[in-house]
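Checklist before submission:
- one chain only
- standard amino acids only
- sequence pasted in full

Submission:
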Amino acid sequence: MSNTHLHPEIHLQSSDILKDIVIGMSDGLTVPFALAAGLSGAVSSTNVIVIAGIAEIAAGSIAMGLGGYLAGKTEQDHYASEEKTEYWEVENKTAVEIEEVRNVFANWGLSKEIQIQATNEIIKDKDRWVAFMMKHELGLEKPDAKRAGKSAFNIGVSYIVGGIIPLSPYFFIKESYDALKFSVIITLVCLYIFGFFKSKITGVNAWIGGLKVMLIGALAAGAAFGIAKLIEG
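Returned file contents:
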């Protein structure tokens, strides 16, 4: 009796929802943070900053959500267009399409006999034939029909959640400079944590990735604050 030795293979893959959260959170944390920092350099009362911050978060979440929706719809429309073309080619260029199926199997290293058998099996069903060509010839996966709406919601909500973080100290502290100090600490910590897990998902060095995201946010906020002070001066 032979023993089969198995070892666990860990692959960290990012799903569509994680991609949406990354897109929404990255801008949600950075843009309102820079806006609040910039306004803190120009006004002393936090009331104006809170109002402007909420308005920006509302507008930003809608814009980002709409962008996610349009991206999802574009993906669906592109797939539908290519699928329609593939059905036409199967009907009108049958011999060419059969040869393309066989070429796919040939590129996989299958023997001539197996290529023919597999090809004959695939072309028995037109829908399966087209689905095979879409995936293995064009490299397209059929998108989720609800993907556009889900993406818009995920990105929009993530932007709002991210945007509330740098703005939160301004709800409770009256002086903008004092609120900015807490906002900087809270946001930079959150940016680092966000960058850490984002990098972990994408398979790069998490510690360096977190530091990069944190520095980008700090530079954006610092630039906005400095410009506001220069204009005020």
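Reviewer check: Residues 16-225 form one domain.
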